[in-house]
Amino acid sequence: MKLKSLKFIGILFLGFVLLVANTSCTSLIEDEVDNQKEEEEKEEVIATMTAEVNGEAFESYIIGDGESVSATINILSTGGYLGAISGFDFTIGLKRPKAIIFYFIGGDYEALSNGEIYNTITPDFLSSGAYAWYTQNNGEEEGNEGFGDNKELEEVYVKITSIDKENKLLSGEFNYKGTSSVTGKKYAITNGKFSNVLYVLDQE
Is the pTM of this model over 0.85? Predict the structure, then answer.
Protein backbone atom coordinates (compact mmCIF):
# COMPACT_ATOMS: atom_id res chain seq x y z
CA MET A 1 0.00 0.00 0.00
CA LYS A 2 2.82 2.35 0.95
CA LEU A 3 4.67 1.50 -2.25
CA LYS A 4 1.65 2.42 -4.38
CA SER A 5 1.25 5.68 -2.45
CA LEU A 6 4.90 6.55 -2.98
CA LYS A 7 4.61 5.80 -6.70
CA PHE A 8 1.52 7.99 -6.96
CA ILE A 9 3.20 10.81 -5.07
CA GLY A 10 6.25 10.42 -7.33
CA ILE A 11 4.14 10.62 -10.45
CA LEU A 12 2.39 13.75 -9.13
CA PHE A 13 5.71 15.34 -8.25
CA LEU A 14 7.17 14.54 -11.67
CA GLY A 15 4.08 16.00 -13.34
CA PHE A 16 4.38 19.13 -11.23
CA VAL A 17 8.08 19.52 -12.13
CA LEU A 18 7.32 19.12 -15.84
CA LEU A 19 4.47 21.63 -15.60
CA VAL A 20 6.67 24.20 -13.86
CA ALA A 21 9.48 23.63 -16.36
CA ASN A 22 7.12 23.97 -19.30
CA THR A 23 5.57 27.12 -17.85
CA SER A 24 9.02 28.61 -17.22
CA CYS A 25 10.16 27.80 -20.77
CA THR A 26 6.98 29.26 -22.24
CA SER A 27 7.40 32.39 -20.12
CA LEU A 28 11.04 32.76 -21.17
CA ILE A 29 10.14 32.34 -24.85
CA GLU A 30 7.32 34.89 -24.55
CA ASP A 31 9.67 37.33 -22.77
CA GLU A 32 12.29 36.85 -25.49
CA VAL A 33 9.73 37.47 -28.24
CA ASP A 34 8.46 40.58 -26.44
CA ASN A 35 12.01 41.89 -25.99
CA GLN A 36 12.77 41.25 -29.66
CA LYS A 37 9.63 43.13 -30.70
CA GLU A 38 10.58 46.07 -28.47
CA GLU A 39 14.10 46.17 -29.96
CA GLU A 40 12.72 46.07 -33.51
CA GLU A 41 10.28 48.88 -32.71
CA LYS A 42 13.15 50.97 -31.33
CA GLU A 43 15.20 50.40 -34.50
CA GLU A 44 12.40 51.36 -36.87
CA VAL A 45 12.20 55.00 -37.97
CA ILE A 46 8.81 55.90 -39.37
CA ALA A 47 9.07 58.68 -41.96
CA THR A 48 5.96 60.33 -43.36
CA MET A 49 5.00 62.96 -45.91
CA THR A 50 1.39 64.09 -46.15
CA ALA A 51 -0.33 66.92 -48.02
CA GLU A 52 -3.39 67.85 -50.03
CA VAL A 53 -3.19 68.33 -53.80
CA ASN A 54 -6.16 70.40 -54.93
CA GLY A 55 -7.99 69.09 -51.87
CA GLU A 56 -7.13 65.42 -52.43
CA ALA A 57 -5.00 63.52 -49.92
CA PHE A 58 -1.35 62.78 -50.67
CA GLU A 59 0.25 60.17 -48.39
CA SER A 60 3.77 58.84 -48.46
CA TYR A 61 5.45 56.91 -45.68
CA ILE A 62 8.18 54.38 -44.92
CA ILE A 63 9.04 52.04 -42.09
CA GLY A 64 12.71 51.16 -41.78
CA ASP A 65 14.63 51.19 -45.06
CA GLY A 66 11.83 52.04 -47.50
CA GLU A 67 12.18 54.36 -50.45
CA SER A 68 8.88 56.28 -50.56
CA VAL A 69 10.23 59.34 -48.71
CA SER A 70 13.84 60.45 -48.99
CA ALA A 71 16.04 63.49 -48.45
CA THR A 72 19.55 64.75 -49.11
CA ILE A 73 21.49 67.82 -48.07
CA ASN A 74 24.44 68.74 -50.26
CA ILE A 75 27.18 70.98 -48.90
CA LEU A 76 28.17 73.17 -51.84
CA SER A 77 31.67 74.31 -52.73
CA THR A 78 30.45 77.88 -52.21
CA GLY A 79 29.85 77.09 -48.52
CA GLY A 80 26.07 76.95 -48.81
CA TYR A 81 23.78 73.94 -48.80
CA LEU A 82 21.11 72.48 -51.07
CA GLY A 83 18.48 70.26 -49.49
CA ALA A 84 16.04 68.07 -51.42
CA ILE A 85 13.03 66.11 -50.15
CA SER A 86 10.83 63.84 -52.25
CA GLY A 87 7.77 61.74 -51.52
CA PHE A 88 5.83 59.25 -53.66
CA ASP A 89 2.20 58.27 -53.18
CA PHE A 90 1.35 54.81 -54.55
CA THR A 91 -2.23 54.55 -53.27
CA ILE A 92 -3.63 54.43 -56.81
CA GLY A 93 -1.05 51.81 -57.85
CA LEU A 94 2.67 51.27 -58.36
CA LYS A 95 2.37 52.25 -62.03
CA ARG A 96 0.46 55.47 -61.23
CA PRO A 97 2.53 57.32 -58.63
CA LYS A 98 2.10 60.89 -57.48
CA ALA A 99 5.28 62.76 -56.62
CA ILE A 100 6.07 65.80 -54.49
CA ILE A 101 9.61 67.15 -54.77
CA PHE A 102 11.02 70.35 -53.32
CA TYR A 103 14.37 71.96 -52.66
CA PHE A 104 15.57 74.42 -50.05
CA ILE A 105 18.76 76.45 -50.33
CA GLY A 106 20.64 78.21 -47.55
CA GLY A 107 23.95 79.83 -46.73
CA ASP A 108 25.50 77.72 -43.94
CA TYR A 109 24.62 74.14 -42.96
CA GLU A 110 26.14 74.56 -39.52
CA ALA A 111 23.73 77.44 -38.88
CA LEU A 112 20.68 75.48 -40.11
CA SER A 113 18.35 75.05 -37.14
CA ASN A 114 14.72 74.55 -36.12
CA GLY A 115 12.37 77.21 -37.47
CA GLU A 116 14.28 77.94 -40.70
CA ILE A 117 11.88 79.25 -43.40
CA TYR A 118 12.32 79.35 -47.19
CA ASN A 119 9.68 81.30 -49.14
CA THR A 120 11.57 82.84 -52.05
CA ILE A 121 11.35 81.07 -55.43
CA THR A 122 14.86 80.17 -56.64
CA PRO A 123 14.72 78.16 -59.90
CA ASP A 124 18.45 78.61 -60.51
CA PHE A 125 19.44 77.40 -56.98
CA LEU A 126 21.94 80.26 -56.77
CA SER A 127 20.39 82.10 -53.82
CA SER A 128 18.59 81.25 -50.61
CA GLY A 129 15.01 80.09 -51.07
CA ALA A 130 13.10 77.08 -52.37
CA TYR A 131 11.74 75.44 -55.49
CA ALA A 132 9.14 72.69 -55.98
CA TRP A 133 7.56 70.26 -58.47
CA TYR A 134 4.47 68.10 -58.60
CA THR A 135 3.87 65.21 -61.03
CA GLN A 136 1.17 62.60 -61.37
CA ASN A 137 1.00 59.55 -63.63
CA ASN A 138 -2.54 58.97 -64.91
CA GLY A 139 -1.80 55.78 -66.82
CA GLU A 140 -0.77 54.97 -70.38
CA GLU A 141 -3.76 56.65 -72.06
CA GLU A 142 -3.71 59.97 -70.21
CA GLY A 143 0.00 60.21 -69.42
CA ASN A 144 1.61 62.53 -66.87
CA GLU A 145 0.39 65.83 -65.52
CA GLY A 146 1.79 68.43 -63.14
CA PHE A 147 4.16 71.37 -63.11
CA GLY A 148 7.70 72.29 -62.20
CA ASP A 149 9.34 73.83 -65.24
CA ASN A 150 10.79 77.32 -65.01
CA LYS A 151 8.16 80.01 -64.26
CA GLU A 152 5.39 77.48 -63.51
CA LEU A 153 5.87 77.72 -59.73
CA GLU A 154 3.96 80.71 -58.30
CA GLU A 155 4.29 80.40 -54.51
CA VAL A 156 6.46 78.31 -52.21
CA TYR A 157 6.84 77.89 -48.47
CA VAL A 158 9.11 75.41 -46.69
CA LYS A 159 9.77 75.39 -42.95
CA ILE A 160 12.19 73.13 -41.09
CA THR A 161 10.46 72.54 -37.77
CA SER A 162 13.05 70.06 -36.52
CA ILE A 163 16.50 68.95 -37.61
CA ASP A 164 18.53 66.30 -35.79
CA LYS A 165 22.02 66.55 -37.24
CA GLU A 166 23.38 63.69 -35.14
CA ASN A 167 20.80 61.16 -36.39
CA LYS A 168 20.22 62.94 -39.74
CA LEU A 169 16.46 63.42 -39.34
CA LEU A 170 14.29 66.20 -40.78
CA SER A 171 10.73 67.32 -40.02
CA GLY A 172 8.85 70.31 -41.36
CA GLU A 173 6.00 71.92 -43.27
CA PHE A 174 5.47 72.98 -46.88
CA ASN A 175 2.93 74.58 -49.20
CA TYR A 176 3.21 75.66 -52.81
CA LYS A 177 1.19 76.56 -55.89
CA GLY A 178 1.79 76.36 -59.61
CA THR A 179 0.18 76.22 -63.05
CA SER A 180 0.98 73.82 -65.86
CA SER A 181 2.20 75.72 -68.92
CA VAL A 182 0.93 72.84 -71.09
CA THR A 183 -2.66 72.41 -69.84
CA GLY A 184 -3.18 75.60 -67.83
CA LYS A 185 -4.33 73.50 -64.86
CA LYS A 186 -3.65 75.03 -61.45
CA TYR A 187 -2.25 73.03 -58.56
CA ALA A 188 -2.33 73.89 -54.86
CA ILE A 189 -0.27 71.72 -52.54
CA THR A 190 -1.44 72.60 -49.03
CA ASN A 191 -1.14 71.34 -45.44
CA GLY A 192 2.15 69.69 -46.33
CA LYS A 193 4.07 67.98 -43.55
CA PHE A 194 7.06 65.66 -43.39
CA SER A 195 8.28 63.90 -40.28
CA ASN A 196 11.40 61.96 -39.28
CA VAL A 197 12.78 61.86 -42.83
CA LEU A 198 16.28 60.40 -42.81
CA TYR A 199 18.61 62.53 -44.93
CA VAL A 200 21.97 61.83 -46.51
CA LEU A 201 24.62 64.50 -45.98
CA ASP A 202 26.79 64.88 -49.08
CA GLN A 203 29.79 67.18 -49.26
CA GLU A 204 31.25 68.27 -52.58
Answer: no
